[in-house]
Amino acid sequence: MDILNLGLAFLEGMALIASPCVLPILPIVLSAGLDSGKWRPYGLITGFIFSFWTFTLLSRKLVSVLGVDPGLIRNISFAVLFIFGLVLCSEFLSEKFTALSERLVRMGQSLSSQLSARESESKRSGFFSGFLLGIFIGLIWSPCVGPIIAIVLVQVIRQETDLASALLLAAFSIGVSVPMLLITLGGKKVMAKLDFFKRKGALVRKILGIIILVTVLLTAGSEWFNLTPPSFAASPNIKILDGLANPSPAPEFKGISAWINSKPLTMAQLKGKVVLVDFWTYSCVNCIRTLPHITAWDKKYRGKGLVIVGVHSPEFEFEKKLSNVQMAVKKYGIQYPVALDNNLDTFTGFENRYWPAHYLIDKNGRIVYTHFGEGKYDVTESNIRAFLGIAGAAAPDTNARGFGAYDQTPETYLGYARAEHFDSPEGLQKNTTATYTFPKTSPMHAWSLSGKWAVGAEKISSREKGASLRLRFTAKKVFLVLGSDRGQPVQVSLWLNGKLLKNNAGKDISHNRLSVKEHRLYELVNQETSKPGWLEIRSHEPGLSAYAFTFGS
Fold first, then answer.
1. 82 vs 214: CA distance, rounded Å
2. Would you say the pTM of this structure is higher than 0.70?
3. Distances (CA, A) of 108 to 42, 114, 522
4. Closest CA to 523 of 552, 485, 497
5. CB 205 within 8 Å of CB 94
6. Which of 83, 299, 398, 551 is 20 to 30 A away from residue 425, measured at CA?
7. Rounded CA gap, 31 and 133, in Å?
């Protein structure tokens, strides 16, 4: 939203007075200011603006509900604006449009005269009667002034936010209300001055048409042909740390099934902003540990030109559910836009292979810095500041925590598609329910099963009471992605080194038990230091699903 668009909307509102369809309505507008109370003219203007405002906002909401691609809306709007600009510039096309709407004009004139007579007879002169009359005028007027109304309509629809639409409508409404209010308040004196529009109306329309055509060519040309001049120059006093030697254009967001906290965004729309794209998924502990830093950057730098987009790229099927992601967004206080990349189309478009992964994009739409995994928060923030043109590097992250030890157990997936270090003698039985037993001994980092379990590509599911999962690990903290297949909580008991888990219990353990319902990451163990251990997880009923272990120090 910029001054040019607002100014154009104001001029479009003013131009309504030059429409050929306005003249039959002007006597009604004039009558509102004659032999009536002082508030009736204001009621008329308010009613007229209200009817147009409501119609336009409903049109915008309809487009949003239908999920029309915003890029398509923008291109169509440019085409419509260009066509209507030609209509306003051409007397021949204006005459054709007037002929098409002539029947509606006559109908509006007849109905308007009848309403005016009834209003005169009833001698109602308050704000409310003027408001009703204004609504009626708006309804019969809007179709007649087609090109101008259509222009502002498509402008409103293609705005990125409701606030931008409201500002555009406000500018247009002010433009409409100024001449109308002068007519209602000035009466016949103002009517006499309107002879100018009868003589110069064609010239006014041509000028407006030229303004519209030039605006479309400048705006569309800059987007379609990448004519936007370079807008970024890093401050010479700030060094870009670990920047890419050869910045490349950022791929477009694609295959997004839903957006949270935002209307759909495109890279083209974000040009002129510094953008941080964060690939994450809500059950990944490494991703979760980065979120406090990212949300802090959003609060600190959003007003200075930074746009953060979280691209939620799921590892597991349950992470594709919109309500689950919405719950995680609320839980972690995320207020920036989040895109659901359920088929990993954007993930692969960036040629990404990591969770989490951060891509910093400059104002010209180029990827200039990347970081994969946790850590280096001060480096990333310093680069954000540099590309925003903010002097001074970020403060060193003195609170940075360790993410693991060299001998820590690696991330361990349990579904057969990525399973490693499985140690039950029966071996994993794919896509079927089987009975398993624990081995007598197991090497470090190995896991095994006991009882009936169903093993799928991405998870294992308990099929009887007492089914157990055992892991030999080295770490300070142990996390496990769990969920319930029952639609209700599954109760779980845990043992650490042969004893019921108590003193070293993770934050999700309560009274030596774990209640599993939501599909998410659960913290099971939190020891004082990183050290070896045996963890056994026993399900008290069927329906416990387990996906992957992760670890921390």
1. 9
2. no
3. 22, 10, 67
4. 552
5. yes
6. 551
7. 11
Q: Nearest 10 degrees: CA dihedral of 199, 200, 202, 203?
A: 150
Contact 431, 455 (CB under 8 A): yes
- Nearby residues of 217 by Cβ (< 8 Å), 6 or more positions away: none
At how many degrees (to 10) do helices 285-301 and 377-388 cross?
Answer: 30
Q: Which of 185-189, 200-204, 454-458, 459-463 has the lowest mean pLDDT?
A: 185-189
pLDDT confidence of residue 279: 96
Q: Is the pLDDT of residue 122 over 50?
A: no
Query: Whose CA is closest to 309, among 343, 266, 248, 368?
Result: 266
| Residue 280 CB partners (closer than 8 Å, separation 6+) | 287, 290, 291, 310, 311, 312, 313, 355, 356
Across 486-507, b (16+ Cβ under 10 Å) vs e yields eeeebebbbbbeeeebeebbbe
Structure tokens that stand for 263 in this block:
């209307």
The rounded distance, in Å, linking the Cα atoms of 267 and 220 is 15
Order of strands, sheet of 248-249, starting from the edge strand that comes earlier in the sequence: 248-249, 366-372, 357-361, 274-280, 306-312, 338-340, 258-260
Cα–Cα distance between 304 and 363 in angstroms, integer?
A: 13
Alpha carbon distance 478, 535 (integer Å): 9
Q: Contacts from 198-207 at CB under 8 Å and sequence distance 24+?
A: 198/23, 201/18, 201/20, 202/91, 202/94, 204/15, 204/18, 205/15, 205/18, 205/88, 205/89, 205/94, 206/88, 206/89
Residue entry with tokens 């096309």:
93
Please report where in the chains the tokens 């490349």 appear, as a residue.
248
Give residue 126's pLDDT band: very low, low, confident or very high (50, 70, 90): low
Structure tokens belonging to residue 306: 């930074």
Q: Give the whole-angstrom CA distance, residue 197 versus residue 176.
A: 15
Round to whole Å and give the CA distance between 278 and 271: 17
CA distance 55 to 167: 16
Token pair recorded at residue 36 = 């009536």
Instruction: Say if residue 159's pLDDT is above 60.
Output: no
Per DSSP, 18 falls in state G
- Please report which confidence band the pLDDT of residue 333 belongs to, taking 50, 70 and 90 as the band edges: very high
